Amino acid sequence: MSDLNEHHPLGFQLLQNPVFNKGTAFTEAERNALGLRGLLPPHVQTQEEQVARVLGNLRRKDSDLERYIFLIGLLDRNETLFYKTLSDHLEEMMPLVYTPVVGQACQMYAEIFRRPRGIFISKNDAGHVREVLRNWPFHDVRVIVVTDGERILGLGDLGANGMGIPVGKLSLYTTCAGIPPQCCLPVTLDVGTNNETLRNSPLYIGLNEPRLRGEAYDALIDEFLTAVRELFPRALVQFEDFANNNAFRLLKKNRDRTCCFNDDIQGTAAVALAGMLSATRITGQKFAGQKMLFLGAGEAGTGIAELAVAALVDDGMPEAEARQRCWFVDSHGLVVRTRTDLAEHKLPFAQEHAPLPDLISAIRDLKPSAIIGVSGKPNTFSREVIEEMSRINERPIIFALSNPTSQAECTADEAYRYSNGCAVFASGSPFSPVKLNGTTFVPGQGNNAYIFPGVGLGVMASESRRVTDEMFLAAARTLALEVGVNDLTQGRVYPSFERIREVSAAIAAAVAEIAYARGLAMHARPANVRAQVESLMWKPEYKSYV
Questions:
Q1: Taking the mean position of all CA atoms in its chain, how far away is CA 138?
Q2: d(CA 479, CA 477)
Q3: 516 part of the active site
Q4: What does the alpha-carbon distance between residue 316 and residue 29 come to, in Å, rounded to a whole number?
């Protein structure tokens, strides 16, 4: 190897480094100057020609999982080409690099593992987390997505296999908001897994031990966050796919001392609230007049409700009245005050009401204008449920937000067909347009990618020391304003993903403005915040090396 480096000190290494590799797009001058002559076929291709080749190969694959593997392989070879392909074909690519395909990829992560991405920190690294993080080759880290793999999407405990989630999320930070890929760090905290199937697999890549709990678990989290603050003082930490029992308390414990947020709680809340605000433009009603019934009372559902309450209070409604607009059904029925089995995060939404056993009885009794599914339980918005909502409401709002597609409470086709085309529908995973009675409905996807990339960009632009709920409220309202009349006439409650960089820039500017106004930014407010935001957005274009 030393002989190779002596004769080809730069060229061969460039081809092995995905950050700098341009493949067949290296120019004649670059090939001569960098020792690449003969290491590449002679034809110099444009980036557009390379994208065309990628698309041809991708579309010939037999399954979405194979397409995912192909795209991750491209990311490992040529980072700029990967992001160029995603950016130019986002509607096609997003389901492949994130939901729903990333769920299957995480389930199969050990089997399809090719090359490590990001940082794995195990419980065995306790006391040495700082040294582990120092092994990351890039020092200007601005966004970290971290998971412990316990609640991956709606699939449960996948342990170290959950690394596919931080990698996928950060690819969207770059694609949707232009955060440079070298500023992004995926982290998986491997504290074991209680998934016996994984632990019995000889291919499993993580610790073959039960999950770490209690003080040792908390100490590892504290050590990780302390090391992040020391090594990457301008970094934002996004907690991702932690189980309910940890998600709420980790956010509460750390939000005032670390620049952090929980996407499952706050990001989901913002995108759902934006969808509700848009939906009321279709129904012709006021948001203050909505009664929302949630199926599922975990971090996503209560997060949405808390932000909805904040929006109503900000608009002048007393908090007690605002909370009465949000009702919950969990696995034991309606969440009411007489129940003695409620977790702490459910208590603020426990209503004074007689117990009800299930969703359909709650709909008949409460007559909600909107049902919001965050249960991870498929087929729970049954025909009976949707028809009852349609009987109560001229335009029922039906949000089936659970991911991946296999866990959705209902499909777009079911929502439109059972409501005879009257439903205002959104989902967590993508669904194809639905034709019914001569009308084509385009379902909106309540994807958190509408929110978290813009929030991250706003934090990066302002160098905010904290992330606040006010920022997510501003993000939700900004996203709702980006929904045009043409979107609404098709039944969409979100803008097209083709506009995502523009949408992310608008959200980032709104978030940055709050950081400047609240004294959270590390520098003075620039004259033009939107221009500053846009100037930071990385584009997947090749740089010249000569």
A1: 23
A2: 5
A3: no
A4: 64
Beta-bridge partner residues of 330: 333
Q: What is the per-residue burial (b if ≥16 Cβ within 10 Å, else e) of 343-378?
A: eebbeebbeeeeebeebbebbeebebbbbbbbbbbb
The CATH architecture of the domain made up of 101-258 is: 3-Layer(aba) Sandwich (3.40)
Task: Starting at the earlier edge strand, list the strands of the sheet with 424-427.
Answer: 333-334, 326-330, 292-295, 370-373, 397-400, 424-427, 444-445
Among 136, 117, 116, 163, CA closest to 228: 136
Which of the following is catalytic: 68, 84, 109, 169? 169
Q: H-helix or E-strand containing 294?
A: strand 292-295
Q: At 297, phi and psi to the nearest 5?
A: -125, 40
Cis peptide leading into 404, omega within 30 of 0?
yes
Spatial distance between the Cα atoms of 512 and 462, rounded to a whole number of angstroms: 5
Q: In what order do the strands lie in the sheet with 236-239?
A: 119-122, 184-190, 143-147, 236-239, 260-262
Residue 416 bears catalytic tag: no
The residues of the chain scoring below 70 in pLDDT are: 1-9
DSSP 155-196: TB--GGGGGHHHHHHHHHHHHHH---GGGEEEEEEE-----H
| Cα 247 from Cα 3, distance rounded (Å) | 51
Sequence ranges of the chain with CATH classification 1.20.1370.30: 2-77
User: How many whole angstroms separate alpha carbon 166 and alpha carbon 185?
Assistant: 8
Q: How many residues does the chain have?
A: 546
Closest CA to 292 of 335, 316, 327, 254: 327
Q: 3-state class of 418 per DSSP?
A: helix
What are the angstrom distances between the C-alpha of 205 and each of 36, 65, 422?
36, 19, 48
C-alpha span between 29 and 44 (Å, rounded): 11
> In the chain, which residues fall in CATH 3.40.50.10380?
101-258, 450-535
CATH of 2-77, one of 2.40.70.10, 1.10.10.10, 3.30.160.270, 1.20.1370.30: 1.20.1370.30
Q: Residue holding tokens 């908090």?
A: 319
Report which of 409, 379, 227 is spatially closest to residue 301, judged by C-alpha positions: 409
Return d(Cα 114, Cα 157) in angstroms, integer.
22
Residue of 68, 98, 416, 450 marked active site:
98
- Provide the residue type at 407 as one letter: Q
Residues 355-386: tens digit of each pLDDT: 999 999 999 999 999 999 999 999 999 999 99
Q: Which helix (H) or strand (E) holds 145?
A: strand 143-147
Distance CA(259)–CA(92), nearest Å, equals 33
The CATH fold assigned to 450-535 is Rossmann fold (3.40.50)
